[in-house]
## 1
Amino acid sequence: MLQNAGLFLILAVLVGCEQSPPVFHASESPLRLSAWNLFDLSADSLNPAPQTQVFRPANQLFSDYAQKLRTLWIPNGTQASLVNDEIDYPVGTVISKTFYYHTDESGALIMSPESIDRSIALDNNRLLETRLLVRRNEGWKAFPYVWNEDQTEAFLRVAGSSQSLSLKSDIGNLDFVYFVPNENQCAGCHVTNHPDGELHPLGAIASQLTANIDYPAGNGTSQIDDLIARGWLNYSPEQATPVSWRDESAALEDRALAYLDMNCGHCHNPEGTADTSNLILDGNHGQLFSMGLCKPPVAAGGGTGKLRYGIVPGQPQQSILLYRMQSIAPDEMMPELGRSLPHSEGIDLVNQWIAQLPGSCE
Amino acid sequence: MHHRIIRSCSLGLLLTGVIACSEQEPPEPEISFEESLQQQLIQAQPGDVIQIPSGTHELTRGLSLNVNGVTIRGEGMDTSIISFANQAQGAEGLLVSADDFVIEDLAIEDTVGDALKINESTNVTIRNVRAEWTGGPLTTNGAYGIYPVQSSNILIDGAVAIGASDAGIYVGQSTQIVVRNSRAEYNVAGIEIENSTFADVHDNLTTNNTGGILVFDLPNLPVQGGRNTRVFNNRIINNNTSNFAPEGNIVGEVPAGTGMMVLANDSIEVFDNEFTDNDSANVMILSYFITERAFEDPDYDPFPESIYIHDNLFNAGGTNPDSAPLQALLEATGEDIPDIVWDGTMVPGRDVGDILCLTDNADASFVNLDADNGFATPNFDSTAHNCSLPRLSAISLNIGAE
């Protein structure tokens, strides 16, 4: 009897030290990220567990030029379904997003174009945080884990954290405070319907996953097909792939609206927290006034930048929308959360779009 | 014997395994006061009381609460102070989206944006809370001091709001509201009720603001049709601070020296107030057209209607108006601006008595600005307004605290 127990323990320990499959924690969230078994940190790199699917949405939120590695995991024996053509994930689903920066030989963080990595080598990258979105019985829950200095573990920081970073770029060093959101701030974006108060995934949704992982580059298979191949989904949603704001062959307006949808639409939608302003930026409703065209501000405070309208056609520099994208003052900048730096590429895109809009506000 | 060997062997292996694992266990991070406070707010359960000890607590990130039924309680608005003078993140000091919320006996100071914002919440009690920008009235101050929006059953009692670059106490797009026993000083707007219904604003002191009490209804908002507000027993005194709102905001168009302004709101009863030394005018009743702002909103009613002003005490005022039409009027007449100013606009064919009634305001003076005709023929005769309107009902809130 004892003998068997001993052997069982040995096996358990050995498996625990190597790599067990991911674990769904149904109620208490562990303090250490390693307890989820989503990653293996061997061979000087962060490797997603083979049971997880690395994915990348068609459009991505700007996060101070951080690189992102996203994984999706659905427990064995469960399956997602389509409800109203949207993916409804089963209880136990764990979505992760790890934020990191490339580093140079000296270890300094460097700004670099988005790279689509399947694992993160620790000799030329620095891990900052891993955010989890976990589908529990009572709904989605968000958990921010912050990597330690030694890059050996990430710890749950319910209240978020912050650190000063310096990012090497073509235009010199960008010094800023990098903020890890607290759990309520996670909800600030992921609660897309404010009255119902429920968190929802923003990237691992049907329309975003119809793209191939390198979208708009490459011509690989739809990531939906990857889910189907794993047996996580039975059939494809009938959703069009959103225009990528990065796709220079697409129409300027489509790109700008796709950018605003991904970066603003989670709050600025008819049911979102920012509906108090009646500025609606979640895409294709065709109402330019609601997108800010000649619309006076409501409660913008200093966020007006002394300007009168959200968008003044043909005059980006007279448009509050662009002013708030350019600002880095906490009470003025948009989005309010998730960035400390202005996103030059996004600003250029919206600038170009406003510049060619016809008409005037007078 | 054989058995024993295997067993001790397995124990040895087991230990090795445990040691190998525990050697990799890195230490846990330390948690600051700020992080611990935010953690309490996140992990709170309904019924919890979160205490803010006395002292000045310097925070760098905005706080937020999403759990229903929580009370945040300090030891007094002058002793438990949360200071955001070094705030680096967050558009608010404290952002609440939670029902059955109580906050009392503390101060929130020097936030970069709004001090206390409450969004989409039901049953909100804000009692003996001070929201202040300590550097005085500055354009760089945050917009709103105490700011419930899209909420219902709101009690603001014994609050103090100082220095907001928009409104000190601002209730927007809400219903069932009581603002009482509070003091608003050195804000652009002292107390503002906007796009809201069923509010009682009483027993407050508003002084040294740009405008003392504003009741507005604005177009192009998801909640419209502002009406049914009673403003009574307030002291509205010396609201002559230069307008310091950031340009582009509608409140930036309020003239310094405004005692009370009703803009496009309906069914407003103003009584038993004291108006003293508001240098543009003690009371203004205006349509949205006065702002000269375009609006595209077929459902919007830009005219104020059913405004009943009675039994108020008017002392001096209107001596130094901060508005071109009022200045022109003062120059033309050589007299102070009358106590009660109506821009004179209304839907054609309406009876003046449906728009504005004035009774028992002692010897209050009046002017109809004739704004429709470019202010051509101001009319100082209030005879047409010698009428009364049905009294509005008192607000009774369904919250335990009432």
Note: Chain A touches chain B through 62 residues (CB under 8 Å).
## 2
Amino acid sequence: MWKTSMRFVLVISLSVLLCGCWDQRLLKEQKLILLLGYDLNSKGEIITSTTYPISKGKSGTSNAPAAPKSTILSTSGETAMDSLLHADLKISERIDISKAHVILFGEKAARKGIYPELDHIYRNPKGALSSKVAIIEGQVIDAVSINQEEADLNAQYYDEFLKSGIATGFYTNYNVQSVRPLLLHHTKDPLLPLLKLDRKHKRAVSVGMALFNNGKMTGKLSIPESKMYTLLSGEQKQKISFFVKSSHQIGKGRKNDVVVEILGGSQKTTVEVKNKSVSARISAKLQYRVTEYPKDQLTDPQVMSKLTHDIKTGLMKTAESMISQLQMANCDGLGLEEELRVHHNKLWKEKYRNINLREVPIKADLQFEFINSGIIN
Amino acid sequence: MKIDTQITKLQMFTFLIQTQIGVAFLSLPHEIHNYAKGDSWMSLLLTGVFMELFIIFYILLTNRFPKQHLFTILESVLGKIVGRCLTLIYAGYFLLTGTTILVLFVSMLKKWMLIYTPYWVILLLMVSIGIYIATENLQVIARFSFIATIVILTFIVVAPIAFKDGNLHYIMPVGDAGLMNIINGAAHATLAWQGMELFLLIAPFVISTGREKMKVFTLANLFITLFYAFITFTCLIYFSGNELVLLPQPVLYLLKSFSFTIIERPDLVLISFWIILVGTSFISYLYGASMAGAFLFKKWPRRSYVYLSAITCFVAALFFNSVQEITKLTKYVTYTGLIFLMVIPAALLFISFLFQKRQRGEIDVEN
């Protein structure tokens, strides 16, 4: 009898204890921030712009579910978290950033370093580690408050925007977690998507990638250079298209520029050490197909050889300008210092900690292989 | 013949690995990384080899006293008074370890999952699970360990997802930390093997010969070593060195950074699984402490000592809240652990060799 009653008491008390009322987070009491933007104002304070969906009661008599709407809130504070605390003062419910899809940084903030703003996300057990990070040329508040027409919510819009950029090969695929080792571990630097706003057409526009050095933004790459980077860093090896201007213009009526798409290939970064001085070589063998060539007649060997030459020189130029941009920004996106640390550890410790890329000659060596010209010749 | 207090070899295997894999393994990569950097995985393999030596000691000791458990061995080797005193100290050690498990468990859970839940509520839940199972006989405990082993398998299955984003360059060049640092790391990893000493308690209840026990024990050690080394290796290639310094529980952080379509936060699911692993360790120590109590004072059944030790652990755990206190406690337990894990069994073996002591006649122990 005693045993049964003891068990009964236990079951009752457990059911009370196990409901865990202390840590419940009810959706109806939270405002889920989906898009987060950080920028600096002239006083050096951090401005945080956020958007979150709001649900207003259905208007009128229509039975169709109302499209989700989002609203914008912008606050400033000394640090990222401080500005969010200020945001909490202006919101009717509790603020919750654990479901953020995208985190945007203004160029000004990025040039001061992005790790301090991300710290509170890393520290929070509910932090949104898989959200994407991008840099905005200009003011973040404009990007957050964009009145675009492609998606219901702005957060969704940027999420899809970045996803398609990654698929097309002009953005690197970093999220909050995967960019972290590169921000802390200075033997390789990250490159992050760079967008700007076309306010007239209510759109965001890709402009390339932002270059970082030791966690701070130091330069920019254009779109073709970004594509070349994703190709040569081995980030992506397919589905990247390049436009190449031909030097042999024949006649005036038709242009003979060409668009090629890379289908695959192999890429290798080698660091050579000679007499304790370092040089790097990035070699790639790329297979391509022609996706546009208005001149046609690609079966003609003479045309073909000229074209191959044009493609090679054109893309080599892009590669070289990409490399010189990286060197100018001292952004080790190709991981040369890491290569050095792993394979020439002693030399790295002696001389090349925090390598200055401007002093390292980097050579690109590209080989191209023609695969096909689509379904016509 | 199988009596219901005896366990099989497989149950012994699962009991041992469940006791050893508990709170410590979530923070193991971080702890070892402080010493051995990118070569931490080698440190763990080294510790495994070193522990194998003590397994031989344990087996030699139990082979000399095949029907006796730790406390009766203590009495036979050291005499009644010293033996009983040591049994009391052992009970204190089991209680201390149980308390440490509880304290670490609650602090971890409060950090990762239940930030606002009061300390004592989480504690009470764990203690009640401990009492519920530890009051049963060894066979039930071992069966529970067996079922709970599925949880360890999930960790093994989930962790390799990190290989996709891993970077082998983080652990290269291999051997960069230097031999001394690797050994130093290995020395600090011994706490993760704590729980091995409970073999001496369950040894007489396992239905097998000494040779088979050796085999099973070695297999358990091999499993533990490879498991720890694997988890550490995964963390090492996923997180860079500078990052790992900042992450006290890299295993959870690793799981947190994955995201699936259905489960957005796999770390929460795996924390719930991990609670089971902590539970089995805690249960084993409650069992050990209550065995000591029942052996010292035969007046009451073992069941009542389980209640007593669980309440002691609960009250003791209430006193440790802050990070500094917990670090101090863990340090203290690590050093006392070394005594009970290595020094005492080795000394017992040595004395029993020296004075030619071995089991005489039939002694039947009960649990």
Note: The mean pLDDT of chain A is 83.
